[in-house]
Design a protein that fits this description.
single chain, alpha/beta, Rossmann fold, 8-stranded mixed beta sheet, 5 helices, 17% strand, globular
Length: 228
Amino acid sequence: MSAISPVVLILGSGPNIGQAVARLFGSKGYKVALASRSVKEAESTDNHLNIPSDFSKIDDVVNAFTKVKQVFGPPSVVVHNVSASSLSPPDDPFALSYEEFNKDTTINIHSAFIAAQQAVKSFTELPSTAARTFIYTGNVLNVQILPRFISQGVGKSGGAHMIWAASAVYKDKGYKFYYADERKIDGSPKYRVDGDAHAELFWDLANAKAQGPWMQTFVKGVGYQKFD
């Protein structure tokens, strides 16, 4: 009997990071589930599942997990690659409407919380040999202020805190949690990030035997680098 293929669920299937992660994991034998507003369910295949989802709706997060479990089984790697940002004036961050702020934080924090909650439930169904890894695509906004991006900054800071807590609490169970933030070699923010570099890091994190530093600041071609 052939081994059951592991499953990666990618929430947010943008053309850069999301697609790069899907390509790499798919090439390594994973069944790939992509959940986003842009995917078409009819284009699913035996090894690739598209789940139309709007992550401003929390129920869609739960539905994505339900669907992938029904079709492929519980995911052993979950990537929260969803982000939202409504720009405010640089000199008046509170000019942003509450409606915009609420929508962005729902996507950046609430959907991530539900995704992590669902991921833990999935991990309990998997053997200890499975990757059991949750990765949140972050950026520098959990440690740096960019006033125009106040809603995304609040979101990424909230996401980072959740990942930090989870990495400490669940490591003894073998569940790994990471916040990924690509930087330039000098540690400064990289605003045009590299999808393939993210995919390579995510692959390494998924295959690591134990929890590493929860805040994965990394450089393309170098890997994890600790910056002040």
